[in-house]
Write a sequence for this structure.
């Protein structure tokens, strides 16, 4: 079973930064696109960002554009989500999800991702 593993969450003050990592132990890692999703208490899960297999395509939800940056290092099977200028409304459990793709795209639709991590807490508070 393919299992993404998230790391890097925690507590940070407003305006601070965190870098989330998502590692997938899979020989054909470079055939898998990655999506980051988050779910705040009492809210529905929402897409945050995604990156294609080669990293050439990335997308961001409007609320994080200019503050978050997604990247991948295929040599270590890891995708990163750099989160800067964090706001209290970014507080949520962040999930990494992955799906095998044979194109240069990525999806922000959660139903297209069959493999999910356990999630990691990000709390932005003073």
């Amino acid at each position: 079973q393919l299992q993404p593993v998230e790391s890097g969450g925690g507590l940070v003050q407003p305006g601070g930064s965190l870098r989330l990592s998502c590692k997938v132990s899979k020989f054909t890692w470079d055939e898998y696109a990655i999506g980051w999703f988050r779910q705040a208490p009492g809210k529905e899960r929402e897409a945050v960002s995604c990156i294609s297999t080669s990293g050439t395509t990335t997308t961001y939800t409007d609320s994080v554009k200019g503050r978050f940056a997604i990247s991948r290092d295929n040599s270590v099977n890891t995708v990163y989500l750099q989160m800067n200028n964090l706001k209290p409304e970014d507080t949520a459990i962040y999930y990494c999800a992955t799906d095998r793709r044979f194109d240069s795209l990525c999806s922000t639709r959660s139903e297209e991702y069959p493999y999910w991590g356990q999630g990691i807490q990000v709390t932005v508070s003073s």
About this structure: The CA atoms of residues 23 and 78 lie 4 Å apart.
